[in-house]
Amino acid sequence: MTDLARFIQGLPKAELHLHIEGSLEPELMFDLARRNRISLPFASVEAVRAAYAFSNLQDFLDIYYQGAGVLMTEQDFQDLAMAYFRRVAADGCRHVELFFDPQTHTDRGLPFRIAIDGLLAGMAEAERTLGVSSSLILCFLRHLDEDAAFTTLREAEPYLDRILGVGLDSSEVGHPPSKFARVFGAAGEMGLKRVAHAGEEGPPAYVREALDLLHVDRIDHGNRALEDPALVARLVAEGMTLTVCPLSNLKLCVVDDLKAHPLKRMLDLGLKATINSDDPAYFGGYLGRNWTETAQALSLSRAELVTLAKNSFTGSFLPPGTVSDHLAGIDAYLSSNS
Ligand code: HPA
Ligand code: ZN
Q: Which ligand ends up closest to the CA of 68?
């Protein structure tokens, strides 16, 4: 392990943009397919990996929704979550605010409670056995309609005390945030936090809509905000956290080369950026690898890495006292490493 990788591994950090269904590794996909007697359109783990060559978001989503079809029982979701938490705990991750896509499962006939009960069991196990805390963000699929989102929000009502917030994901272009203004309004009235994918492939106007119409507390991705200087100034002034996903951006051709990734520019502009993995089983790396590859490609300084780690906690929805404890943990790590 290089000095840089060792420094990053030990640095306490949080992950704020992780789709749990996107952590389904091909090996587990095959195990679950066998366990649930589901046939896969792939002959082997290698064939699955070979199919992970994407030229845009939709290419990826088609295969991602297909992969999620092996998840059938609470145990499957618990196993999925625990596999992710084991992996990310090894990367020095202390806290995760994870997305799940209930409609991906209810649309194929699974009751709402199967996914959520299984994930909550995995999250409790991770906290107990790995010391990684987590909370759950329910994402609406934006290629589906507003009614479907409202149905999902109603199904979530019995779980309100165990859901942190709502998010918006899936195919961005053609499905602007405005389509979900009312359901996000209802979620806000229910006391839920609000986040939305915006500016991954969609224009800066979608980022503005997420702020003005969805009243989001964080922007997921946000890359294309950089095309609009007034929008950047606003995001800086509001201290808005961006959950940036470098390896995802590379795999989905949002950037051509990690060396051209805007993360460093975001920091230079004063934007509150964080590093995240998005869908690590599909995009070639978990949290640690996103950090090390980006740090290398952009020659990030130790000071910039510390800013990113601090942003991951101050940009989280943890209570202020817990955020302070994590920040103190970062400072303690730095003094023991200097
Ligand atoms: N973008 C939009 N929707 C998604 C993604 C993403 O990167 N990953 C899983 N659903
Ligand atoms: Zn995402």
A: 1
